[in-house]
Amino acid sequence: MTKKIPLLIDTDPGVDDALALLMAFNDDRHDVVGLTIAAGNVGLRHTVRNALKLCEVAGRDDVPVFAGTPEPLLHPAPDAGYVHGQDGFGDIGYPPPARSAETEHAALAILRLSHEHAGRLLLVALGPLTNIALALKLDPTLPQRVARFVVMGGAVTGHGNITPAAEFNFYFDPEAAHLVFQAFGRIDLADWEATIAHGLHHERVAEWLRADSPRARFYAGISEKTRLWSIDRRGDHWYAADAVAMAFALAPEGALEVAERPVAIELQGAHTRGASVVDWRRESGRPDSAHILLKYDQDRFEGLIRAALAAG
Ligand code: RIB
Ligand code: CA
C-alpha cells in the first residue's frame, strides 16, 4: 500500500481555511501531520482556538496545533474580521475546544516536521507567510526538505481584494511573502484571481451544507455570516480562496492550466505594497519559480468540497 503523503498546513482560520482543512482531513492520500497557525484573518488567539475547535468537530484531535507569531514581521496590518466574523468563525459563540495548542512554536514545528518528513513533505500555506518566513530565517535549508509547497496568495494580474493591487495574505505581511518567494525554487500558487475564476454558487453550497454530518452542521454555522456578506457584496457566487488552494494541493491532476513565471513581491509603493508582480514577458531573467494556477477542474473542485462536508 502506498505511504500517505505527509501534509503540513500553515493557516489563519478563517472560514475558508476551515473548509480547506476539512478537505485535507477527508483525503485518504494525505496524512495531516500538523497545523501551524498564523495571525491574519483575525488575531492569533482566535485563529489558534478556531483550529483546535475544527479539529475537535472533525474528530481529529490527533492533529497537533502549533501557535505562530501574533504580528507581521515589520508593520502591523488590519485583519479581515469584517469578512469572517470578529472571532474568525462567524461569531457563533461555540463552546471552547477541550484541547490546547502544543507549546512548540509554529516556526520550530515547521523545521522539525520538515526533518521528520524530509523529501516527502507537502507544505500548504493558507494565510500570511510570517511563520514560514521565520522558519526560513532560523534555517535557510528548509526548502531542500519540502517536496512540494502550495501557497494561497497574490493577485497575478493585479486584481487585489484588500487593496486595488494586493491580495490579503501577501498584503498582511509583504516582507514575509518576499522572503518566502526568494527562498523557494518552486511555489505552486493559487491566487485570488484563480479563486474568483472558481466561484461556488450559493444555492449549491447551501445544498452541500444540508448534509447530515457534524462537519456540515458546524460549517453551516460558522460560514453563515461570511456567506451572507458575500451575497450582499459579491453576488450569487461564494469565493473560498483556501479551498481552491487545497484542491490544487490535494489533487494537482485537476489543474487544467498552469503558467510558470517569475514573481516578486512589492514592499514599497503607496498603492502597490503587497502586490504580487508577475514577470509575464520574462524580462527580469529571474527563474520561473511560481507555478500559477490559471484553471482547475470545477467539477472535481466542487466534488472535493461536497465530500469534505458530508464526511462523518
Ligand atoms: O485573500 C484570501 C486569503 O486571505 C484567504 O487565505 C483568506 O482566508 C484570507 O486569509
Ligand atoms: Ca486563510
UniProtKB/TrEMBL annotation:
Species source reads Pseudoxanthomonas putridarboris
This protein's source sits in the domain of life called Bacteria
Keywords assigned: Hydrolase
Molecular function as annotated in GO = hydrolase activity
This chain's protein is named Nucleoside hydrolase
Q: Which residues form the Inosine/uridine-preferring nucleoside hydrolase domain?
A: 7-301
| UniProt-listed InterPro entries | Inosine/uridine_hydrolase_dom, IUN_hydrolase, Ribo_hydro-like
